[in-house]
Structure formats: C-alpha cells, structure tokens
Amino acid sequence: MSILVMYLRVFSVNKRFRYATWATMFFVCGYLLSNFWTQLFGCSPRSKYWIPDTPGHCINYTKAGQAYGSMNIASDLLIFILPLPIVWRLQMPLKERLGVLLIFMSGF
Predict the structure, then answer these.
(1) Cβ–Cβ < 8 Å for 82, 7
(2) What residue ranges of the chain have pLDDT lower than 50?
(3) 15-41 and 61-81 are packed helices; what angle lies between their axes, rounded to 10 degrees?
(4) DSSP readout, 13-63?
(5) In terms of pTM, does the model score above 0.85?
C-alpha cells in the first residue's frame, strides 16, 4: 500500500494512472480483508482453528491459501507494472529512463 500511495504522490498528474492506482489499492484492501475474515471465521466453532480436536468443521485452508497467494502475486505484478508506461514516456535519455525504471522496480 505504501508504494501505491507513493505512486499517487509522484504521478498525480495523470488521471488514468490515478484511477488505476486507486483500483489496485481497493483490490489489495479487498483481498486482505477477505483473507482476514476467512481466517477469523473459517472454523466453526472458532476454537477449532487452535485446537483441532474440537468438534466442528473448518474450510479448506490449503485452497484458501492458494487463492490468496495468487491474488498477492497478481497485486504485486500490478504494482510492479503500473508505473512502467509513464516512466517510459519521460523526456530523458534512454540510460536515465532505464535507471528510473530500475529504481521503481526495486521498490524505492
């Protein structure tokens, strides 16, 4: 999220980029909240999560983990790709543009 907020501050001129950044932020918040609620209410009764011998049932946490892992990979890829078109259109020499791209790709 902090990288996305930084993108909003650095690239606030481009309206389409702002919308894409906000959409990515909502996607990230949405799957993080759904992961939280799945972990919190995935077992009935809730104590079964910590004490597996308790009678009741739980969701398949392996499949849930795979789903959230794939959403995490997708959001990381979005965050990685988001600034590339704007940086590539900068009016500067190719070496400097590649340096700026490397800085954004590293997360700084």
Answers:
(1) yes
(2) none
(3) 160
(4) T-HHHHHHHHHHHHHHHHHHHHHHHHHHHSEESGGGGT-TTSSSEE--HHH
(5) no
